[in-house]
Hints:
By secondary structure, this protein is α+β, with helices and mostly antiparallel strands. Helix content is about 30%, strand content about 25%. The protein folds into 2 domains: about 5-290, Pnp Oxidase, Chain A (Roll); about 310-425, UbiD C-terminal domain-like (3-Layer(aba) Sandwich), CATH 3.40.1670.10. Helix 6 packs across helix 7 and helix 8 (about 290-305) crosses helix 9. It is globular. The mean pLDDT is about 95.
Amino acid sequence: MSLREFVEESQSFGDVLKIETPLSPKFEIPLVLKELDGGPIVLFENVEGYKVKVIGGVCGKRSRIYKALRVRGAIELYQALLEAVKNPLKAERVDDGPVAEVIEKVKLDRIPVLTHYSRDPAPYITASVVSALSPDGEIENVSIHRLEVLDEKHLAIRIVPRHLYRLCQIAKESGKNTLDVAISIGLHPAVLLAASTPAPFGVSEYDVANRLLGGRLKLLRCRYVNAYAPSEAELVLEGKIMLDKLVDEGPFVDLTGTYDRVRRQHVVKVVGVMHREDYIYQALLPASSEHRLLMGVPREALIWNLARKIVPEVKGVNLTAGGCGWLHCVISIRKVREGDGKNVLMAVFSAHPSVKHAVVVDEDIDPFNPREVEWAIATRFRGDRDLIVVPNAAVSTLDPMADEEGLGCKVGVDATKPLKEGWMFEKASIPLSGRVKRLLEGLRRAC
Ligand code: MN
């Protein structure tokens, strides 16, 4: 399954906007993506200075992610993700594929990489997946990393201490000074989502993606490095992470919409480029809804999975847009015992330790509707009884309010109604007769 097929399918639902006005990848395309954030997929057909097209916002709507994964809603998506991590399906390795149509000399300035925000030091590749193998070839990891374009042949790669970092360590310990990587761009949403889903070290996220795609992911061995890329990607950069070289990276606008600090990071030397003849460059605007959903949705799945061990039913989990898809959580549950709300809050903080403010609401409150959530806080919450405050807890490195040691404060709000005399807290409703129903439908059509 390719990005193209998915875009075509989305087009048939009227969910793709084509822009013919010539626009520059520096600031102009990013600004249009920002203005249209959360809307349709945007295809820029005329990119100033380049022959290829740019696409953005592909994973920018929850409903579109559901369609891509053939699920009907959030809970089904969580189940599919957790199931795919538990039962990954080995992806087929093939010798050729559409991405190998053109094998080209390395010249990164030929690729329309976007420069997003005003203080950005350089263009950044943000929607690529990076795959690497352990030196013995036994372990494969696939993850998303921001890549700063340094010059025609070099990128700086931000590696947080997780699995790719561990592969770098293993390579170093076995005496190597480089680690081969495939950097793939232009991918089906399932591959992007799998690459941002936490799977145990040793599980290839390609195999997670392949499970999500029903066995339709094919992998192609790179020409110059020992790494694999989806054969239906739009563009692949073959590279070597130079393990003995660090450079200043950033500042980069992260999920919070604020600048991360300048960090010392590794350099990737790009040694090969392959792409489709008329490849589409896939972009992702930092701090956009697409960024939040790709990072947040897999964490919602973890929260859902832990919370349902405490209460029989978890109706929904929302890592909210205002909370950067990462720091704020609203969870809706069916409460059965007094105190369930607080236990669920603790589960939220455990399942996703980056959450700093969490709200738990009853099953009649839609966690995706901020007004309903506020109503629950207004009518079902008392600060002296229903509040949890945890000072000096470890918080997200993305939290601008964290102190130097990474400590901050977690706050949990239990806005579930007391079980005793629960009727007093019910949303009052009015019975609906047949003719009022018809009248209202008519009025709504007329408006
Ligand atoms: Mn991994």
